[in-house]
Amino acid sequence: MTVLRFSTNSVPERQRRDAAEYVYGAHVRGQLDFPKEDPIRVDMSARELGGIHLAAITTSPVRAYHAPDENGMVYIGIATRGTGSLDESGGAEVQAGYVNVVRRDRPSTALVAQESTILSLAIPHVQIVPRLAHFDTLIGRSAAPSTASRLLEAYVSTLLTDERTISTADAATFASHVIDLACLALGTGGDSAEIATKGGLRAARLKAIKADIAANIGNPDLSIDWLARRQGIGESYIRALFYDTGTSFTDHLLNTRLDYVRRLLSDARFDNRNIASLALEVGFGDISWFNQVFRRRFGMTPSDMRRQRHLQ
């Protein structure tokens, strides 16, 4: 389950309209009408996870015509950049950061008035509607940005930028988290709010923290206090998130650094770098301790690992 990438830049100009419509139609059934005077530009990333479909679409101005849905899907959009409108006659104005439920009980249109980037989610009706409060009032309307909507946006964006193949089991877990966050962003009913908060919200927060750690692994300021301030949460909450997964912040940070050094040692491009400099680069200040924990984790010294690769 990898990410599908499409760009009109890779298609001859005369074929761009048809190609964009074909790829768009694979995600959400509809037709596209681009203004004749503007060049057509569409970049799209899409991924299927556990029965839900995710897409990120950057497009030049366009009007999309949607047929009634026949597959029992609920379509949710988040404009991360740009503006537009849903169901133009009396529908919702799309603003950046707002979560929109697209009307699919009858033919509808969506207008993208300027070049925009939109996250689009297609979720089976049976998996989300029973958990939403007053679903009928959400159709064709917008939910204002919230903590849940921002986490939903970040979580979906991460899934669409991560090139790695996702296993079937992990895909089901990620899909569940997406649905939890969508429910929280739109308004849950009954016990669903508590279920979603314990599931998707915490999972998305932990994923954001782990991504922050990976992106700043060589930063000397990287610590639980530094992360708490960046994420706007308490240190005890971060500790609790890792504890729920059976580990600790300290162990995760250590293992992330060790895995990073191992990847560098496995890459011939870094053969001219001494091992101590690689360790220092990812935040190990004590080389003796680094050698000790590396051997405990991988069953060999860093030098042995590099030597072993050369003998293969």
Overall description:
The relative contact order is 0.09. It contains twelve helices and twelve strands. The protein has helices at 16-27, 125-128, 135-138, 147-161, 168-186, 192-215, 224-231, 235-244, 249-265, 275-281, 287-298, 302-311; strands spanning 4-7, 30-33, 42-49, 52-59, 62-66, 73-81, 84-86, 93-94, 99-102, 108-112, 116-124, 142-143. The strands form two sheets. It has a seven-stranded antiparallel β-sheet with strand order 1-3-4-11-6-9-12, sandwiched between helices. A five-stranded antiparallel β-sheet has the order 2-5-10-7-8. Mean pLDDT is 81; it is low at 189-197. It is globular. The chain is of the alpha+beta class and 312 residues long. It has two domains: 4-215, Jelly Rolls (Sandwich), CATH 2.60.120; 216-312, Arc Repressor Mutant, subunit A (Orthogonal Bundle), CATH 1.10.10. α4 packs antiparallel against α5.
Q: List the domain count as a whole number.
A: 2
Instruction: State the separation between the terminal residues, measured CA to CA.
Output: 31 Å
What is the succession of H and E elements? Answer: EHEEEEEEEEEEHHEHHHHHHHHH
Number of helices: 12
The largest sheet has its strands arranged as 1-3-4-11-6-9-12
Could you tell me the CATH topology label of the largest domain. Answer: Jelly Rolls
Major sheet characteristics: 7 strands, antiparallel
Strand content: 15-25%
CATH architecture of the largest domain: Sandwich
Averaging pLDDT over every residue, what do you get?
81
Structural class by helix and strand composition: alpha+beta
